[in-house]
Write a structure and sequence with these properties.
mainly alpha, MetI-like fold, 10 helices, AA_ABC_transptr_permease_3TM, MetI-like, Amino acid ABC transporter permease
Length: 244
């Protein structure tokens, strides 16, 4: 059975390429982090645009989301890297710029829908109560609606972060030296495919596990049932006060 024919001496070769894998992890994390943060910021504006009653704001936001959610990320990457950026600047700006733009625009479309749904899940009475107290619509959204909606957005936003990290492997098609690209180089140099790609899969699994734990902590931290542990100083003060 060829799929079990794993040469254990290949792991020495993979170890010799460890610097390439480490660099690939760093580039993968950098592309994911920057693309996600920018996508979250842009997604907030697009999501708010989809809630607008003004057609000149609503329809551009709607068409933006429909386009980037309805077309493959791979097509978007190639379109941005080979057509849009060279068409504007006359030449390519490299894999990093193209990758950041593609991941940002794609992530923003999904984050916009998450934000829109999160805001709409808050009861209208919350906004009406804030307006009755004299708050403007913007102030009510900032101080009342968004903080409550964010608690409900954390799980889907976390899932989008993990999905974006895995989707960043598609940037290999524009020669981004990410984690998958490192596996491809080792596979080409050794003419072996099981060991390099198993290594890549395990590393992605490890990153996903770490991200999942971090997202789980944030989700628990912002949940309604979260009870912070008492600080030592406060607890000591409380005991002393009770004994007086």
């Amino acid at each position: 059975m060829d799929f079990l024919n794993i040469r254990w001496d290949m792991w020495e070769m993979i170890w010799n390429y460890r610097s390439m894998f480490i660099r690939g992890i760093g580039i993968t994390l950098a592309l994911t982090a920057i693309g996600y943060v920018l996508g979250l910021c842009l997604g907030l504006f697009v999501g708010m645009g989809k809630l607008s009653k003004r057609k000149w704001i609503f329809y551009p936001a709607k068409y933006y989301v429909d386009f980037f959610r309805g077309t493959p990320l791979l097509v978007q990457i190639l379109l941005i890297h080979t057509a849009i950026i060279p068409g504007i600047f006359g030449h390519s700006l490299g894999y990093f710029v193209s990758g950041i733009i593609a991941l940002t625009l794609n992530s923003a479309a999904y984050n916009a829908e998450i934000i829109r749904a999160g805001i709409q899940s808050i009861e209208k009475g919350q906004n009406e109560a804030a307006r009755s107290l004299g708050m403007t619509s913007g102030t009510a959204m900032k101080l009342i609606v968004l903080p409550q909606a964010f608690r409900r957005m954390v799980p889907p936003l976390g899932n989008e972060l993990i999905a974006l990290m895995k989707d960043s492997s598609l940037l290999m098609v524009i020669a981004a030296p990410d984690l998958l690209y490192a596996g491809k180089i080792v596979a080409g140099a050794s003419s072996r495919f099981w060991e390099p790609y198993i290594t890549v899969a395990v590393l992605y699994l490890l990153l996903t596990f770490i991200f999942g734990k971090l997202i789980g902590y944030i989700e628990n931290r912002f949940s309604n049932s979260y009870i912070p542990s008492p600080r030592r100083g406060i607890f000591k003060f409380g005991r002393e006060s009770a004994g007086r």
